[in-house]
Each structure stands twice: as C-alpha cells, then as structure tokens.
Write a sequence for this structure.
C-alpha cells in the first residue's frame, strides 16, 4: 500500500483551521459588528487608513496568509461536508473545491499586488 | 427492589436457515439495578434458550458484549436498564457480518489490528542482563490512555466511514498503533506508517468523532487519529521537501 498524498491538502486544511479559528472571528467582529454597531468609530475602517495598512509589505503578506489558508481550509472542509451529507462524488467535489480555492488565491495575489 | 416489565426486542438471525434477520419480542421482568445484559441472560435462562450472544466479564473489561442498544453501540453489561424506556431494541453491532443473532464476525477487525503491529518493536536490542527498560511517569502518561482499549469494536459500529469504506483500518486499530508509536521503548513507528499513512489508514477518517463518543473506556480514538494525521503530514513534508532529513 502506498503512502497517501493527502497531507498536501490536509496540511493546508489544518493550518487554515487554526488561523481561521483564531483570526476570522476577530475580523468578523471588527468589520461586521463593532464598526456597523458603533462600538468602534467609522474611522477604524476609513479608506486611507486601510489603504496605508494594506500597502505595507508585511501586512500584505499577513493578509495573503490569512486569505490563502482560510480558502484552502474552507475548500477541504466543504469537500468533507459534502461527503458527510452523502454526496458520493469525492473526486469531482474535490476538484471543484480546490479549483475555487486556487482561483481565490490567485485573485488575492492580483488584488494585493495592485495596491 | 422494584421490578419493571420491559419489552426487549432482539434481532434474530441464523444465516443458514433464515432469509433475513427479524426482530423477536420478549417481555422481561427486570430488577431496578439490572443492565441490558441481565435482561438478555434472563431471556436465555427462562424464556428462549436459542438466543445467541457473547459476554464474559459482566464488568466492562473483556469487551465481548457490545451490541446496538436502541440503535447505539454500547456494552450491554454497562448499559443500565433504568436509563432506557420500557421498550428496548437490541441488535448486533453494526457494520459486521452476523454469525448468529447478536454474535458478529470480528475477523476483519482482528486482521486490521494485526496489520498495525500492536506490540512493542524494541528500539534497541537489549538482553535480560542489561536490566529493565526504565520509563518515567511522563513517558507512561504519553500513551497510557490508549492502552485502555478493550477491543470491544463499538467504535467500528459507530463509525459511518467504516460502514462506507470497509477497507478503512478504523478507530481502535489506529489508536493502538498510536499507543505503541508513543511508547518510549518502541522503535516501530516507521513500519506502522506503511499502514497508518495510507489512504485506508488515517486519511480515510473524516473526523466524525462518533468513535470517541461511544468508547466505553475514554480511549478517544478520534483524537489519536488526528494526532497521527499531523505527524504523518509533517513526515510527508519532510520526505518531499527536505529529503536530506531522512535518516
Ligand atoms: S477504542 Fe474504545 S470503543 Fe474502540 S475498541 Fe477500544 S475500547 Fe472499544
Ligand atoms: S461482558 Fe465483558 S465487557 Fe461486557
């Protein structure tokens, strides 16, 4: 029996899961709750401020890391969830999920580089 | 001591004579402190001697009395009747072929258990005159939990993945592989990886977690499998990205 190559996608999934668990709630809180509900002032998300932030290479890299790992985590999670729901077409589901994650990754690179 | 009449439905099946399994119902006068196994034993002793089932210790250590109780895998000697309604349904463990009534064929599990080499493969040869292997409390604690497995196979009956993919090595065998991998005296991890790190090994697990929920000994096989996934992933990256790190 040959050793599996699943560690490639699972490694990304596990790393993404850790990052998502710790950072995504904070992002959702700031962008989705704190600012809209006035807990934080609108200046927190002001265009210039965010632009300066993202223009910095270090934060660009950090943002890319968060997006990249979260996407691959979501893709693998989606693949497993489809399986748990009884969809028995793992190969097709896997290809679609990972393709979407790859597209998202590419999109993130392009967008981040243009800032 | 109060007595309660419980309707016990038992799945009956003799593959040699029966077309299909069918439920047979028995009304059993049960004592307050009885477990499910007591009710089945009562049936065997007083109502129907043809009912077949396995048991031995009656104290949750031998692992032979596993059954589906109201659809959930459980040790019948550890399932108190007071926790169940007046009607219960007893079936053989799911995902295993039936030998007769509640007795299932465990050959598949035994064969898989064998494949993961669930015994110490010594790290270094040591003769008796070299003295004993010393192990610190911390080294013992690393794997102690996984030694508690009693091979009851409830985890296999609970695992939907094993039901779907019978080739899956499965929870208990994996937990035992992990147990020996973690033992400071053992040097057999690389041999076990040949089974563990395959598609049929840890990678067939989709982390439903049902195995750990039904385990009567808190072995937490799902936890063991996830830890082995991490270790196997590290191995994979080392092997493919840093080939020089291989011993
Ligand atoms: S891991 Fe738990 S449920 Fe599975 S065989 Fe061992 S004791 Fe039974
Ligand atoms: S009879 Fe031994 S575990 Fe139940």
């Amino acid at each position: 029996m040959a050793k599996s190559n699943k560690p490639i996608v699972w490694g990304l999934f596990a790393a993404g899961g850790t990052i998502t668990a710790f950072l995504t709630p904070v992002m959702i809180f700031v962008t989705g709750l704190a600012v809209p509900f006035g807990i934080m002032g609108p200046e927190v998300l002001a265009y210039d401020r965010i632009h300066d932030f993202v223009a910095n290479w270090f934060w660009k890299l950090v943002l890319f890391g968060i997006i990249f790992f979260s996407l691959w985590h979501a893709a693998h999670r989606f693949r497993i969830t489809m399986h748990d729901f009884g969809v028995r077409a793992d190969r097709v589901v896997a290809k679609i999920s990972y393709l979407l994650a790859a597209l998202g990754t590419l999109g993130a690179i392009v967008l981040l580089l243009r800032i | 001591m109060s007595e309660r009449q419980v309707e016990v439905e038992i799945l009956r099946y003799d593959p040699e004579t029966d077309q299909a399994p069918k439920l047979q119902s028995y009304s059993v006068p049960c004592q307050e402190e009885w477990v499910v196994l007591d009710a089945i034993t009562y049936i065997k002793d007083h109502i129907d001697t043809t009912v077949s089932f396995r048991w031995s210790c009656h104290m949750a250590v031998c692992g032979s009395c596993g059954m589906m109780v109201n659809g959930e895998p459980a040790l019948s000697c550890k399932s108190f009747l007071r926790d169940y309604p007046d009607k219960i349904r007893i079936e053989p463990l799911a995902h295993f072929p039936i030998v007769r009534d509640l007795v299932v064929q465990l050959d598949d599990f035994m064969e898989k258990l064998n494949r993961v080499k669930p015994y110490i493969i010594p790290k270094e040869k040591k003769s008796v005159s070299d003295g004993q292997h010393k192990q610190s409390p911390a080294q013992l604690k690393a794997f102690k939990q996984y030694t508690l497995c009693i091979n009851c196979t409830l985890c296999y009956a609970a695992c939907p993945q094993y039901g779907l993919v019978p080739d899956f090595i499965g929870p208990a065998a994996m937990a035992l592989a992990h147990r020996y991998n973690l033992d400071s005296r053992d040097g057999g991890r690389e041999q076990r990886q040949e089974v563990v790190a395959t598609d049929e090994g840890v990678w067939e697990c989709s982390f439903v977690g049902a195995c750990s929920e039904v385990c009567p000994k808190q072995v937490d096989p799902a936890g063991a499998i996830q830890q082995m996934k991490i270790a196997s992933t590290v191995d994979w990256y080392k092997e493919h990205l840093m080939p020089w790190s291989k011993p």
Q: What stands out?
A: Chain A touches chain B at residues 1-8, 10-11, 14, 80, 83-84 (CB under 8 Å).
